[in-house]
C-alpha cells in the first residue's frame, strides 16, 4: 500500500515537472494582446508586447500571428532574449504604402536575437509600388532611406521558413552580422520593374544558408557583400531579377574579405545576369576567394557567367585605375542553358591584380541571335578548362 502510494505521488510529481519542459508558452497577438486582423489597426503595440513577454521568458516561447490581414507601422524586435523564440506568422502583414511614413530605413527588424524561428506561411507585404518611382539611385540618394521589409541584425542560430516577402520598398531582406541563419522555402515576390529590391542581401555574416527558395524581383535575387563567409545557396529559382551576385566590392574603405560561397543546383530565368562577381575599379583594397558555382541552369539569361572588375554603373568611377580587390579560387562547373546576350561568358579581371585559380568545367550556353553564336570574353585571367566549353573559353572571336 505504502509503495503504491509512493509511486502515485512520484508519477504526479514527474507530471508536474515535465509540463513546463514539454510545452512552450504560446502568445497569440489577437487572443492575448488585442491585435485586430482588420487591415487597419496597427499591429505594432500588440506584437511588441508579445515580443517583450516572449523575450523575458526563461523557457522557449511561441508568438502566433493568426490568419488575416494586419497593418503594421513598424516593429523593432530587440534581444538579447532569455530563451529561444518562434514567431509563427500565418497572416498577411502590410506596411504603410506611403514611404514618408518611415523616418528610418527599416520596417520589421530583429536585433541581437539568439535562437529564432520564423515560420507559418505568412506574408510581409511592403506595399512598395509607390516608392519604386523614387528609388532611382542613379539620380538621387533617396533610395538608401527607403525601408527594407526584413532586417536580421546580429541574429544567431535562426531558421526562417515558409515565409513570403512581397513588394518591399527597397531590399527585401538584409542579413547583417549574423551567424548560422537559414532561409528555406522562402519566397520573394516583386515585379521586374521594382528598383533596388534585392531579394536577400548578406553582409558580414558567417554561415548563411538559402535553400529551396523562389525569388522573383527587380534587382539581385541574392547579393553577397563584404565580410560574408560560408554562404550556401542551393535549390534556388531566380527570375525575373538581376541574378545571384557577389559584390559589388571595393567601393568602401575597410571592407572585410569574402570567402566560401557555394551556389549549387539553381535555376535562373529571364534575368539581366546569371552568376556574377563585381568589383569597382579605382577601388579600396579587398579580397574574395573560394567562390563556387555548380549545376546552374540558365533560361534566357543575360551575361550568364560574369566576373566584372570594371563594375562602374552610371560612370561613377575612374575606369583607368584597376580594381584593388583580389579574386581567387573561383569555379564555374556544369552551367548550361540559354543566354540572351552574345557574350555568354565574360571574365574581366583587374589588370593590377589578375584573377587566380579560376576554373571552367562543362559549360554549355547557347545564344541564338543575329550576330552569331555565343562567345566568351576574358582579360587578366588564365582559367583552367575541363569538359565541354561552349562557347569556347576565353576566345574573343566567335567560335567557328
Ligand atoms: C544552427 O541553428 C539551428 C537553428 O536554426 C540550430 O538547430 C543548430 O543547432 C545551429 N547550429 C549550430 C552549429 O549551432
Automatic annotation (TrEMBL):
Pfam families from the xrefs? Answer: Glyco_hydro_28
One function term, GO molecular function aspect? polygalacturonase activity
Q: Where is the active site?
A: 242
State the UniProt keywords alphabetically: Cell wall, Cell wall biogenesis/degradation, Glycosidase, Hydrolase, Secreted, Signal
**InterPro entries according to UniProt:** Glyco_hydro_28 (IPR000743), PbH1 (IPR006626), Pectin_lyas_fold (IPR012334), Pectin_lyase_fold/virulence (IPR011050)
Substrates-to-products reaction catalysed: (1,4-alpha-D-galacturonosyl)n+m + H2O = (1,4-alpha-D-galacturonosyl)n + (1,4-alpha-D-galacturonosyl)m
Would you indicate the residue range of the signal peptide?
1-24
* Chain residue ranges for the region called Disordered: 380-400
Which EC number(s) does UniProt give?
Answer: 3.2.1.15
- Membrane-spanning intervals of the chain: none
Q: Does the keyword Cell wall biogenesis/degradation apply?
A: yes
For whether the record's keyword set contains Hydrolase, the answer is yes
A single GO BP: cell wall organization
Q: Which PANTHER family match?
A: PTHR31375
Indicate the family of this protein.
Answer: Belongs to the glycosyl hydrolase 28 family.
Q: What does this protein do?
A: May function in the depolymerization of the pectin in its walls during pollen tube elongation, or in that of the pistil during pollination.
The identity of this protein, by name, is Polygalacturonase
Q: Which organism does this sequence originate in? A: Durio zibethinus
Amino acid at each position: 500500500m505504502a509503495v503504491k502510494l509512493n509511486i502515485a505521488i512520484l508519477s504526479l510529481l514527474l507530471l508536474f515537472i515535465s509540463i513546463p519542459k514539454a510545452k512552450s508558452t504560446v502568445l497569440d497577438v489577437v487572443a492575448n494582446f488585442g491585435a485586430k486582423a482588420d487591415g487597419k489597426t496597427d499591429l505594432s503595440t500588440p506584437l511588441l508586447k508579445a515580443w517583450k513577454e516572449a523575450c523575458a521568458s526563461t523557457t522557449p516561447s511561441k508568438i502566433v500571428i493568426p490568419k488575416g490581414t494586419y497593418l503594421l507601422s513598424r516593429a523593432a524586435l530587440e534581444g538579447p532574449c532569455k530563451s529561444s523564440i518562434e514567431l509563427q506568422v500565418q497572416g498577411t502583414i502590410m506596411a504603410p504604402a506611403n514611404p514618408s511614413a518611415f523616418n528610418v530605413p527599416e520596417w520589421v527588424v530583429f536585433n541581437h536575437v539568439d535562437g529564432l524561428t520564423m515560420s507559418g506561411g505568412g506574408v510581409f507585404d511592403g506595399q512598395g509600388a509607390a516608392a519604386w518611382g523614387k528609388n532611382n539611385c542613379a539620380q538621387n540618394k533617396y533610395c538608401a532611406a527607403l525601408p527594407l521589409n526584413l532586417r536580421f541584425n546580429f541574429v544567431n542560430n535562426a531558421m526562417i521558413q515558409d515565409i513570403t516577402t512581397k513588394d518591399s520598398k527597397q531590399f527585401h531582406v538584409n542579413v547583417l552580422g549574423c551567424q548560422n541563419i537559414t532561409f528555406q522555402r522562402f519566397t520573394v515576390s516583386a515585379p521586374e520593374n521594382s528598383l533596388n529590391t534585392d531579394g536577400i542581401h548578406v553582409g558580414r555574416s558567417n554561415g548563411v544558408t538559402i535553400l529551396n527558395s523562389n525569388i522573383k524581383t527587380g534587382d539581385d535575387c541574392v547579393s553577397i557583400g563584404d565580410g560574408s563567409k560560408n554562404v550556401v545557396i542551393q535549390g534556388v529559382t531566380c527570375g525575373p531579377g538581376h541574378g545571384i551576385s557577389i559584390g559589388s566590392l571595393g567601393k568602401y574603405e575597410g571592407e572585410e574579405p569574402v570567402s566560401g560561397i557555394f551556389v549549387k543546383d539553381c535555376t535562373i530565368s529571364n534575368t539581366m545576369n546569371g552568376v556574377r562577381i563585381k568589383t569597382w575599379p579605382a577601388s579600396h583594397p579587398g579580397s574574395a576567394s573560394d567562390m563556387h558555382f555548380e549545376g546552374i541552369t540558365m533560361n534566357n539569361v543575360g551575361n550568364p557567367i560574369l566576373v566584372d572588375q570594371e563594375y562602374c554603373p552610371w560612370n561613377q568611377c575612374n575606369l583607368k585605375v584597376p580594381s584593388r580587390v583580389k579574386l581567387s579560387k573561383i569555379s564555374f562547373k556544369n552551367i548550361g542553358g540559354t543566354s540572351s546576350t552574345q557574350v555568354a561568358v565574360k571574365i574581366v579581371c583587374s589588370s593590377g591584380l589578375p584573377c587566380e585559380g579560376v576554373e571552367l568545367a562543362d559549360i554549355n550556353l547557347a545564344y541564338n541571335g543575329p550576330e552569331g553564336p555565343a562567345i566568351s570574353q576574358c582579360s587578366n585571367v588564365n582559367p583552367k578548362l575541363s569538359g565541354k566549353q561552349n562557347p569556347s573559353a576565353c576566345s574573343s572571336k566567335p567560335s567557328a
